[in-house]
TrEMBL record:
Transposase IS204/IS1001/IS1096/IS1165 zinc-finger domain ranges (all copies): 44-89
Occurrences of domain Transposase IS204/IS1001/IS1096/IS1165 helix-turn-helix (ranges): 99-139
Name used for this protein in its record: ISL3 family transposase
Cited InterPro entries: Transpos_ISL3, Transposase_HTH, Transposase_Znf
Lineage, uppermost ranks: Bacteria, Bacillati, Bacillota, Bacilli, Lactobacillales
Pfam families xrefs: HTH_Tnp_ISL3 (PF13542), Zn_ribbon_ISL3 (PF14690)
Length: 141
């Protein structure tokens, strides 16, 4: 592991050993500068038979919205989830993490922060602005 990877994991408070960060940059999106971190989620073994005999079968890229202390500088993790084919049981799978659910684009930490904010006496619009989410996303939480 590189020291850059360790620094980014420490900064974002991510402890998953299967996530490897490769790059960091700022991008201007919808009138705001987003901090974009590029990472890859690696599948170490088959979730069905626990074999290490895997064949790489592409990536599923998702832009994960991550929690931030400052709403004016949103954080996005461009996460490339590895898809693999197990050569032993011939089943396909995609790498999964506690950071984000499968096929989801909002981190679990952000969801927990929104649920905590919903217990306060505030409007859904102000909660959505603070967390850089839409009001419909807040309603479905």
């Amino acid at each position: 592991m590189s020291s850059n990877n360790d620094c980014i994991k420490f900064h974002l408070n991510i402890e998953d050993p299967n996530i490897v960060f490769s790059d960091y940059f700022k991008k201007y999106i919808n009138g705001k500068y987003h901090s974009v971190y590029q990472a890859e989620l690696i599948q170490p073994a088959c979730p069905y038979c626990h074999s290490n005999n895997l064949k790489h079968n592409g990536h599923y890229t998702s832009n994960v919205r991550f929690i931030t202390a400052d709403a004016s500088h949103p954080v996005t993790i461009r996460l490339k989830k590895q898809r693999v084919l197990c050569n032993d049981c011939l089943k396909r799978s995609m790498a999964q993490s506690n950071l984000v659910n499968k096929y989801c684009h909002i981190s679990n930490a952000s969801k927990r922060k929104v649920l905590a904010a919903l217990t306060e006496d505030r409007s859904m619009t102000s909660i959505a602005r603070e967390h850089n989410l839409s009001v419909n996303t807040i309603k479905s939480s």
